[in-house]
Amino acid sequence: MINFSKNRTQASGSIGKKSIIEFAGLPNSGKTTISKALKRSLRQKGVKCIYHPSASSFSHLRPRELGWKYDLWAVSKIFCQLVEFELDDFNTVAIFDRGVYDSLCWLEWFRKKSSHPSPEIKVLQELVRSQRFSGFSYHLHCCAVSHKEAGKRGKDESGIINRNNFGEFEAIYGDIVSLIGQASPNIHVHRHDTNSVTPSNLVEVVESSLAL
User: Is residue 15 over pLDDT 70?
Assistant: First the structure.
């Protein structure tokens, strides 16, 4: 399992700091619906925010065919977006529909599934783990959903999740998110069961965590 450094700077809340909101979780757990609804709500309130959709929504690359290399590509783009946000003098909130920590969970799954884990996966995991984000108030919102409910909501765009490995992904998300919460005090971890809650209710919860 991945080790997380405890030498992090404690975040002092959202006021006076730029905020990053990342939605992580299994396919069809509500990440895209909630993140888009949050974007609309924040902008209606006059909050200057930028929204980064999941890389799979605009990429011609196929996760099923590329495997962990797809996440290498996705994480690279996310890091570019984080650097741009750090230098952005206009927006104060950045919303990520799948960000660095969501990609970390997928990389861990690929590592476990491979009988000969690629050394590149370990390097990429360490790159993600080493990010301190001390200049931001980082909120990681992990969305959980049952396999039955996920199936009702539509097709898995990744083409990877199925009944056989759904439980494996659930365990990995649970383990990594717990480790992040314990070892990274500047990352504010929030867990949401999206099986029955509405997107509008979750938007209210997310906004309350920002102390707007």
Answer: no
pLDDT at 83 over 80: yes
CA dihedral over 101, 146, 28, 192, signed as positive or negative: negative
Residue 133 CA to residue 163 CA, distance in Å, equals 35
CA angle 76, 6, 20 (to 5 degrees): 45
**Separation CA 207–CA 131 (nearest Å):** 24
Which residue ranges make up each domain of the chain? 18-209
Mean pLDDT of 148-155: 81
Instruction: Write out pLDDT tens, residues 84-132.
Output: 998 999 999 999 999 988 888 888 888 887 755 677 777 777 776 666 6
- Sort 116 into a burial class: Cβ within 10 Å, 0-12 / 13-18 / 19+: exposed
Determine contact, residues 180/101, Cβ cutoff 8 Å: yes
42 vs 49: CA distance, rounded Å: 7
* 155, 160, 163, 165 alpha-carbon torsion, rounded to 10°: -150
CATH top class, domain 18-209: alpha beta
For residues 141 and 184, the model is more confident at 141
156 CB-near residues (< 8 Å, 6+ apart): 27, 28, 150, 162
CA separation for the pair 83, 94 (Å, rounded): 11
- pLDDT above 90 for 187: no
